[in-house]
Amino acid sequence: MDPATVILMLAIHLIASGGLMALVWRRMPGAPGLGRWALASGLFGAAYLARLLAGLQGVDALGLVSDGVMLLAVLVFGDGVREFVGRAPVPPRRVGVLALLLIGTEVAAAAFGGAQARHVALNAMIGLLYAQIAWILAAERTRQSAPLHAPLALLVAIVGGLSVLTLLRGAHIARDGMPVAFHGPMAQGYYLYASVTAVVTALTLVWMMLLRLNGQLADLATRDALTGVFNRNGLAQALKQHFDQRQAAPLTLLLVDIDHFKRINDTLGHATGDAVLQGVARELQSQLRAGDFVARIGGEEFLVGCVGADRAIVLALADRLHRSIGRLQVPAATGSERIGCTASIGVSASFDRFDGWEPAASQADEALYRVKAAGRDGVQSHLAACGT
After folding, report:
1. Are residues 255 and 179 both part of a single domain?
2. Does a structural domain hold residue 227?
């Protein structure tokens, strides 16, 4: 196939892909990375069209501009990847400075070595940028949620392949000159791979966004919007997942109630009450061990699931939570005053089946009632009342 036709197809694919991502981004303006990916794809397509207009092998102003736009597109694409995986995006000024440095390097290569040096420098820089992006994707893959592992692995393979092919293409041009830049098996293979992966990459990026959105919707269904801990749906799911394991360890439930919470709301306002709830939730989460979980099951009540621990360890955890909440100081919404609170905690007996959780919750509630009857601000075990 004629190289100009292949490059034209690649440019169309890239512009169409960028348009698709831009349409999705308009519906999901908060989607991390998607806006940058749409911009990068459009810049790539525009750069290839400009290269066709300038002539594939010429070293003129339009050709150098097209190469500069291509370098900028790779930087923007990499910034979108950083944003998606949770790394801080590179500040726009730094992106601009880096783009100018790369473009300056290419212009210098063209000035001293002509078209061949220009293409060698361009391919080397783009290949190394792709390698950096592939490394970021590979490093962050296992830190993302499990559903994202497959599309991220595919993206690592695509971007890694582009890095290798681009670097090989640069080395091929350096060795054999400009005739192999756009003609021959290497050039044909490179542009066909880039054309196919332009479409696959866009679909993979949209796939990743939909998976991320689906995860966010699942969180909304199972997480308390104010505190971020499980709600009742999330609690049921956590209990079921625990006991679905082949050798599930026993659980013990701790029912945590913030003392005199209504007084905080009535005297200091609901904003301060919300801050207290958020602070208590953070304290509970920070003290839990691996496998333990916490859910908000009422206005000021939290239920903690303690996994596979004997009675002494459970009571030590309850005491640690009680002391931690007692040390909590939350800024009041009405001024600079800081608000403290205490908690009452009831502890259940352990249970080893899913259908045992509701009786255990009742046991924890009975123990909590005894703490309140004794004046609040304490810990009581259900087993203590049974004489065991």
Report:
1. no
2. no
CATH number at residue 194: 1.20.1070
Residues 158 and 255 in one domain: no
Residues 167, 22 share a domain = yes
Number of structural domains the chain divides into: 2
- Three-state SS for the chain is CCHHHHHHHHHHHHHHHHHHHHHHHHHCCCCCCHHHHHHHHHHHHHHHHHHHHHCCCCCCHHHHHHHHHHHHHHHHHHHHHHHHHCCCCCCHHHHHHHHHHHHHHHHHHHHHHHHHHHHHHHHHHHHHHHHHHHHHHHHHHCCCCHHHHHHHHHHHHHHHHHHHHHHHHHHHHHHHCHHHCCCCHHHHHHHHHHHHHHHHHHHHHHHHHHHHHHHHHHHHHHECCCCCCECHHHHHHHHHHHHCCCCCCCEEEEEEEECCHHHHHHHHCHHHHHHHHHHHHHHHHHHCCCCCEEEECCCCEEEEEEECCCHHHHHHHHHHHHHHHHCCEEECCCCCCEEECCEEEEECCCECCHHHHHHHHHHHHHHHHHHHHCCCCCEEEHHHHCCC
Mean pLDDT, contiguous 10-residue spans, the chain (388 residues): 77 87 80 88 90 68 83 92 86 83 85 86 93 94 88 94 94 89 84 84 85 77 88 90 88 95 89 93 89 92 90 91 93 81 94 92 94 93 64
Residue 261's pLDDT is: 93
